[in-house]
Amino acid sequence: MITGRLSAALLRAAALAALAGPLAGAPASAQTAPSAAEAQAYTGLLAAAQRGDVAALERALAARSPAEIRALLDARDGHGRTAVHVAAFARQHAVLRKLAAAGADLGTLENDRYDAVTIAAVADDDDTLRLLLGLGASAKLTTSRYDGTALIAAAHLGHEGVVRQLIAAGAPLDHVNNLHWTAVIESIVLGNGGARHQAVLKALLQSGANPNLADGHGRSPLALARARGLSAMVALLEAHGGKP
User: Fold this and answer.
1) Which residues, at least 6 apart from 176, have a Cβ–Cβ distance to it below 8 Å?
2) How many CB atoms lie under 10 A from the CB of residue 157?
3) For 213, phi and psi rounded to 5 degrees?
4) 190: which residues sit within 8 A by CB, 6+ positions away?
5) N or C: which terminus of the chain carries fewer CB neighbours within 10 A?
6) For residues 205 and 33, what is the distance between their CA atoms, to the nearest angstrom?
7) Where residue 31 falls among pLDDT bands split at 50, 70, 90?
8) Residue 225's pLDDT is what?
9) Is there a contact between 52 and 92 (Cβ–Cβ < 8 Å)?
10) How far apart are CA 206 and CA 163, in angstroms?
11) What is the largest CA-CA distance in the chain?
12) Number of other CB atoms surrounding residue 19 within 10 Å
């Protein structure tokens, strides 16, 4: 689910192998930002989004019919990315504002089923996330091939600030993905038990996330934390009503 560091897909696969039994062979897919070659080949709105060229974006949309503008906004690269996805990956805030004002769909999904909010969440990009939510993007979408959410992805990665933003924006606290994991569970089984993941778990529990939703094998978050020897997380769960 991440690029530019040890792939979260590999972490997920390792956790599956250790914890998920029959799910150990489940495919893991990572977010895919535009490559340098792709970015260089972009034209039109995609090029403007990648470079942050607001003037070029305005020229491309000028004197167009509504149908033509819609076609430009919906145009995709070979990975299914629209200008919104490209701008989110590139952290081009002025372009995102212009795209939103022009009527771009901020919730559209690319080929790996990521929206701009989840892209920002995975990147631990508080500023872009704040902008997207302020422009009306939703924190409630089901995204990724795991049928997860931006909140689950951020909890997995220990992005406390992002998690708090998403909670405030109404992200579903107890969404269960197709691995039968919630944000609470992912913070435990895919985290390292350190301060960042503890802070994420605390934020989730304090906001009302259910401490007792079990995984697909009936293991509670408390049981999973105990199995990994994560004493601080065990204490947090017990303090918020976690049961074995």
Assistant:
1) 182, 213
2) 26
3) -70, 120
4) 8, 11, 12, 15, 156
5) C
6) 32
7) confident
8) 98
9) yes
10) 12
11) 63
12) 22
**Mean pLDDT of the 38-46 span:** 96
Q: How many helices (H) and strands (E) does the chain have?
A: 15, 0
Q: Is 136 exposed, middle or buried (0-12, 13-18, 19+ CB in 10 A)?
A: exposed
Token pair 């920002």: residue: 120
**To which residue do tokens 């004002």 refer?**
101
Residue 26 has pLDDT above 70, yes or no: no
Tokens of 33: 């930002």
The number of CA neighbours under 13 Å toward the Cβ of 196 is: 15
User: Can you tell me the distance from the alpha carbon of 104 to that of 149, in angstroms, rounded to the nearest whole number?
Assistant: 21
Instruction: Give the pLDDT confidence of 152-182 residue by residue, as tens digits.
Output: 999 999 999 999 999 999 999 999 999 999 9
Question: For the chain, which domains are there?
Answer: 1-31+113-244 (1.25.40.20), 32-111 (1.25.40.20)
